[in-house]
Amino acid sequence: MKRSIWLLIIFAIVFILIISWLIITSPNHTSVWKGREVALKYGCFNCHGFEGQGGIQNPKYRYHEIPSWQGGTAMMFILSEDELKEWILYGKPKRLQNTEHGGIIKMPAYEKIISEKELNYLISYLNAVMELIEIDNDSAKVGYEIAKNLGCFGCHGPYGMGGMPNKGSFKGYIPGWDGKDFKDLVKDENELKEWILDGKIKRLEKNPIANIFLKNQIVKMPAYKNVLSENEINYLISYIEWLRKENF
User: Fold this and answer.
1) CATH number of 94's domain
2) pLDDT, tens digit, for every residue of 51-76?
3) Which residue has the higher pLDDT, 59 or 6?
4) What stretches pass through the bilayer (predicted)?
5) With the C-alpha atoms ordered 135, 185, 150, 72, is the resulting torsion angle positive or negative?
6) CB 246 within 8 A of CB 225
7) C-beta of residue 176 within 8 angstroms of C-beta of residue 33
8) Residue 22 pLDDT greater than 70, yes or no
9) Nearest CA to 248 among 153, 74, 129, 110?
10) Which domain holds residue 173?
11) End residue of a domain, out of 129, 159, 192
12) Are residues 123 and 198 in the same domain?
């Protein structure tokens, strides 16, 4: 009898530890990450190219290629966020209902299959990919340009709001700067500077479990101490701090 009780206790402890580990390692993805997943789910990249980079030919279309989401091309067709929603829901905004640009590939209408939550996630993603987010802080604007020129958005997502998969990392991906996982990873401005300068944080290196993930993750944070000036680092931090204060 006692043996059975002890087995139940051990089983309960193991079960609780497993559940706790799954909760701790479960990623808290940002809305931009989730929006990318929605775009992938509904085949948006099939026509607009991965991350909306374009390059997909459309025979008999006035502009030859299906419009990309990047480089300002989309702004030829979208005047507001409401129109962006109309493109997704109805295949064309009300303003352009009587306009025909030709092309044998037509924009589908997702009104009957996409949920409101998915639509909001997709809008968040498109706002970032299309560079529609306005930065209302001068220092943050400079920091944004520095981050863009350094290639930070390649790993952390557009505007630093998404992140990309990273095999072997603690949560399996590179966190966006505006998400909960980034806050858990980087506790304060001093740690953020460490991360930028050295590509690592001393606190995490000293933690035996965290250090295992730091060593095993495929994509590792580069060290920018020989690349960035102190002013550039401060501008970059200003941008990240601005981003974390906003609610997109």
Assistant:
1) 1.10.760.10
2) 898 889 999 998 889 989 987 667 77
3) 59
4) 5-24
5) negative
6) no
7) yes
8) no
9) 129
10) 138-245
11) 129
12) no
User: Between the CA of residue 89 and those of 14, 92, 116, what are the distances in Å?
Assistant: 47, 8, 10
pLDDT at 21: 45
Q: How many domains does the chain have?
A: 2
Task: Assign 3-state DSSP to the chain and report helix, strand, coil percentages, each to 5.
Answer: 55, 0, 40
Do the Cβ atoms of 85 and 119 come closer than 8 Å?
A: yes
Rounded to the nearest integer, the mean pLDDT of the chain is 87
Q: Is the pLDDT of residue 220 over 50?
A: yes
| Same domain, yes or no: 150 and 77 | no
Q: Is residue 17 part of a domain?
A: no
CB of 131 within 8 A of CB of 238? no
What residues contact 128, with CB distance under 8 A and at least 6 apart? 32, 35, 157, 158, 159, 161, 162, 248
How many secondary structure helices (H) and strands (E) does the chain include? 12, 0
